[in-house]
Known about the structure:
Blueprint: H1 2-10, E1 12-19, E2 22-28, H2 38-45, E3 55-60, E4 67-73, E5 78-79, H3 83-97, E6 101-106, E7 109-117, E8 120-124, E9 153-156, E10 160-165, H4 174-182, E11 192-200, E12 203-210, E13 214-216, H5 220-232, E14 239-244, E15 247-254, E16 257-262, E17 265-272, H6 274-278
Parallel strand pairs: 2-3, 4-6, 10-11, 12-14
Antiparallel strand pairs: 1-2, 1-17, 3-4, 4-5, 6-7, 7-8, 8-16, 9-10, 11-12, 12-13, 14-15, 15-16
Amino acid sequence: MRRMEQTRSAALPFMKMHGLGNDFVVIDARGRSVEITPALAIAVADRHRGVGFDQLTVITEAEGADAHLTFYNADGSTAGACGNATRCIARHLLDQTGKDALTLTTERGTLLARDAGGGLTSVNMGHPQLDWQDVPLAEAMDTLELPIEGGPTATGMGNPHCTFFVADAEAIPLEQFGPRYEHHPLYPERTNVQVASLKGPDHLRMRVWERGVGLTLASGSSSCATAVAAARRGLTGRKVQIDLDGGTLWIDWAEDGVWMTGATAHVFDGLLTADWLASI
């Protein structure tokens, strides 16, 4: 019995969440010491031998805010922003605290989240980064139309984005197309790649290849970047509906930043066992 209790106390609790199929393992490290190494992130991301995720997110305390969020990709690298994970955790904390709104700090900065009603959650992802050095790109250029075949738009949302506007987003073989541009030399930190097509007034269809992850059903920061790029190019207004493989997000590029609204799900809670953690 004592061995069982010791083993359980050394286990690491986690939550599994998703936003439109963009899935996350979330570790609440408030009040405990948790070290996340690239090896641990990669092991947890393994969908056969671990849990599986698009991003791993760690919640810690934050001075002057409700919590701090740190994001890891499935390849063990870190990400400065993850919109859907932020929304998922915001929903969890709103329910946990009974608040209508809260603030979260990230590498991207301080983000405001609020209950949007009807089970939806909104997060302000901050102002887009439109200058080449802020995206960042490798050299000075106009970010509206890059000197790349297809003339994509570059946008920073705390992580870099490359958005292609095409006739039919579903016709693009993203498994081959995405990696080609994720590692393009114009993007020294690699990039998320989106293909988007116009479905109607202020209505886009978008698919995503995510840096450090691969093909994903949805991406919040990619949706924000695509909405900003579409507005800059005159394809849409500043409030748009974006249909992704996993569902729909509503983006509003407002005066105080880019607001993203959509559904979230807390799927289950689990434990990473002490024996499994010791094997990494």
